[in-house]
Design a protein that fits this description.
With about 475 residues, the protein is mainly beta. The chain contains six helices and 24 strands. A hairpin with a 2-residue loop joins strand 22 and strand 23. About 0% of the residues have low confidence.
Length: about 475
């Protein structure tokens, strides 16, 4: 059994001297992990704590309880916790503490904004002491001047993210919504654009299994979208473990947060963040230098001049398309701007990628009567939308009624389908009839298009107008 040191509070810098012994700690909560079930019957919550003697990396504490309700319910990152009779353990080069439900106890206090000495949550075995207020007051005075020494490269911007790895993000929470019991979608933003992804879905699947416009089960209402920034990518974040609603208050809407050890995936060509059992939320003050810089950069991108958003940086479009010269000098807008514009009937110049088409066969782009009828899926860094190409707008887009081979090349050039040469060594089965190289991932080029919004039975729809494909040969 672990030996107790005494009833005194141990500073974190001395924790390594007390391996396998019970100690008492008073510290600030730097990181907080969502509660999760263990392999047995217990629940566990992992936190990282700091004090004025040890704050560069902090120290991990694993807290166990018979049910989730008995774990710490942290009101705010940066709050203070007192831990009694926790056991100091060494795991490799790191020293941490383990909370044993049989003999350990804790109390939670408000952090730097607190002005009383009454804990807002205590465990059953906790016994307050008169000297507690001395330690609490000392930490509250120290915390406002604490600045984490974290390199910005440790928290990459959205524009710097890469798939297939875990990462940390410093971002602003725009919205949280529950899509199923204990299943949430969190919408995060940092003002920059996520890199575009290859599209792996088969074009012929668009009829029965269309490429999704968003990752959440149903589209957000326009009233909510209008509260989102019109520039910069919005990252959807989900969880692969049940997250209770009473823990999501730590992700306050409108606040900048730091998310640590989050998994990043690509689903249907869209970036998706995932909270894992190892993900944590990190204490972030308003004065945090990294957050102040991110806020400044995002404010610059959203700055308003004469009632208009200052033009943001758009990808350089290819020469595949051209728009009517009347609209050529217009400033491009994002698809989020198109979705949220107050006017229903309006024209927009956009720089987008065409990620799907229905139909995808050149032979089917026109009706038996010779009328174009196509639905395209467009995306940029802010949104995906469906747009239609119908009748005379199709005549303009495809420059009349070219033969099937020319029509195929024009459509493939928009979709980023690699043309199949079917030369020596290439089997015919590897080529699609009108979709180029069979099943190859696509990287559609950025193209300039002109969109028009219109109303159909109260629903806002979009079509491509005044745009022509010119760079297919």
């Amino acid at each position: 059994m672990a030996r107790r040191v005494d009833n005194k509070v141990l500073p974190l810098r001395d924790i390594h001297t007390c391996l396998d012994r019970k100690v008492n700690l008073f510290a600030v909560i730097l990181d907080f992990g969502f509660p999760k079930p263990t392999k047995g019957t217990d629940y566990c919550s992992s936190i990282r704590i700091i004090d004025e003697t040890h704050h560069n990396a902090g120290m991990a504490v694993n807290i166990f309880a018979s049910d989730a309700a008995k774990l710490p319910h942290v009101a705010a990152l940066g709050d203070v916790i007192k831990l009694c009779n926790v056991v100091v353990k060494a795991y490799g080069a790191e020293v941490n503490a383990v909370f044993n439900k049989k003999f350990s106890s804790f109390a939670l206090y408000k952090g730097k904004d607190g002005d009383d000495f009454v804990p807002y949550q205590v465990s059953l075995k906790f016994c307050p002491r008169d000297e507690d207020k001395v330690y609490l007051e000392k930490l509250r005075k120290w915390l406002p001047n604490f600045q984490p020494s974290e390199d910005s490269s440790y928290f990459p911007m959205f524009k710097e993210i890469k798939g297939g790895n875990n990462l940390n993000l410093a971002c602003k929470i725009l919205h949280c919504c529950e899509v199923a019991k204990d299943e949430w979608f969190i919408f995060a933003w940092d003002g920059t654009d996520t890199p575009p992804n290859a599209i792996s879905s088969k074009l012929e699947d668009e009829v029965d299994s269309p490429l999704p416009l968003q990752l959440e089960p149903s589209a957000l209402p326009k009233e909510l979208l209008c509260t989102f920034p019109a520039v910069g990518s919005i990252l959807r974040i989900t969880s692969n473990l049940g997250v209770e609603k009473n823990h999501l208050h730590l992700l306050s809407v409108g606040k900048w947060v730091k998310l640590v050890n989050m998994q990043l995936e690509v689903h249907a060509g869209l970036w998706r963040g995932v909270f894992t059992p190892f993900s944590k939320l990190r204490y972030t003050s308003n004065e945090d230098s990294l957050i102040v810089e991110r806020q400044r950069l995002s404010d610059e991108r959203l700055s308003v001049l004469s009632g208009k958003v200052v033009p943001c940086s758009f990808p350089k479009p290819s020469c595949i398309t051209e728009v009517n010269h009347v609209h050529d000098r217009e400033t491009p807008v994002t698809l989020m701007s198109v979705l949220t514009h107050s006017q229903v009937t309006l024209k927009f110049k956009c720089i987008v990628r065409v990620v799907a088409a229905m139909p995808c066969e050149a032979e089917d782009l026109c009706s038996p009567a010779g009328v174009y009828r196509i639905r395209l899926t467009l995306e940029d860094s802010t949104a995906r939308i469906h747009v239609f190409v119908v009748a005379e707008d199709g005549v303009t887009l495809f420059d009349g009624y070219p033969d099937i081979d020319q029509l195929k090349r024009k459509l493939n050039s928009l979709l980023g389908v690699a043309e199949c040469d079917a030369g020596p060594g290439v089997k015919s089965a590897e080529c699609g009839t009108s979709t180029g190289v069979k099943d190859a991932p696509r990287n559609p080029p950025w193209v300039c298009v002109h969109l028009m919004s219109y109303n159909v039975s109260g629903t806002r729809c979009f079509k491509i107008v005044d745009t022509k494909i010119v760079g297919d040969t």
